[in-house]
Amino acid sequence: MSRASEVLLEQLSGRISRLREAKGWSRPALGARLGVGRHCVGRWERGERRPPLRLLLRMAAMFGTSIHELMDLPGSMTALEEEVKGDAV
């Protein structure tokens, strides 16, 4: 894994932990809402594993944020799509 990927994973793990705690949820509670065990949540929060995209999307919705904010991605998907379309012309 590249250093950049490690940094992104570390930042994501911190965000998941902070957002979960802000909701007042335990690791088992978040795991139950997502249909995974508390050990999965713990691995995500320690940066040992990455959640699958489908669960990142569900977490973003549950936390009341966007996938872009959760993953610290620039812009919105619409802006990214427009940029890609502009490059294709």
Please tell me about this protein's structure.
By secondary structure, this protein is an all-alpha fold. The chain has a single domain, classed as Orthogonal Bundle (434 Repressor (Amino-terminal Domain)). It contains six helices and no strands. The longest helix has 21 residues, at 3-23. The N and C termini lie far apart (34 Å).
Beta percentage is under 5%
> Which oligomeric state applies?
single chain
Shape: globular
Question: What's the total number of strands?
Answer: 0
Integer average pLDDT = 84
Terminal residue distance = 34 Å
The share of residues in helices is over 70%
CATH architectural name? Orthogonal Bundle
CATH superfamily: lambda repressor-like DNA-binding domains
Structural class call reads mainly alpha
Alpha-carbon Rg, integer: 15 Å
Count of the domains: 1
- What string, H for helix and E for strand, traces the elements in order? HHHHHH
Task: Output the number of helix runs.
Answer: 6
Taking the sheet with the most strands, its summary is: none
What would CATH call the class?
Mainly Alpha
Q: What are the low-pLDDT stretches, counting only 5+ consecutive residues below 50?
A: none
CATH topology: 434 Repressor (Amino-terminal Domain)
